[in-house]
Amino acid sequence: MEQELMRIGVSLPEKLLSRFDDIISQRGYSSRSEGIRDAIRNYIVHYEWMSDVQGERVGVITLVYSHNQRGLVDSLTDIQHDFGRIVESSLHVHLDHENCLEVIILRGDGQEVKKAAEKMMALKGVKHVKLTTTSMGSEL
Ligand code: NI
Known about the structure:
Elements: H1 14-26, H2 32-51, E1 56-66, H3 72-82, E2 87-94, E3 99-109, H4 110-121, E4 126-135
Antiparallel strand pairs: 1-3, 1-4, 2-3
C-alpha cells in the first residue's frame, strides 16, 4: 500500500547541502527527496542498531572533531574520565590545522559504551562519530 507522503521544510548549511547533492548525484538518486528519505532510513537503522548493543562488549569510538571549538577538548576529556571504568585506551592524531582524530577503546556494559559515544556525538564541534562494538570472544 502506498503511504501518504508528508512534506517537511528543513534548513541546512549551504556546504552540507552541496556535499549531500554531490553524493546523491554520484549515487544516481532521482531526486533530493529520495536521497533524504534514504538518509533518514539509515539513521533510524543505525540508531536501532545502537539500542541493541547489550551485554559485555568491546567498543571502538572513532571521532573527528575541531580542536578550535571552544571547550570541546575539555568536554571530551571529562566524558572519558566519567567513563574511566570502561575506557581502556585512546589514541589521538592531529589530522591537520583544525581537525583531530581520536580513537577510544572501551570494554564493559554495551549500554554504557553506547552512552559514552552518544555523549560525545552531542557535543558541538564533533564532526563525525562512529561506534563499532563486538562481543567478547568467549560468547562466540
Ligand atoms: Ni589534535
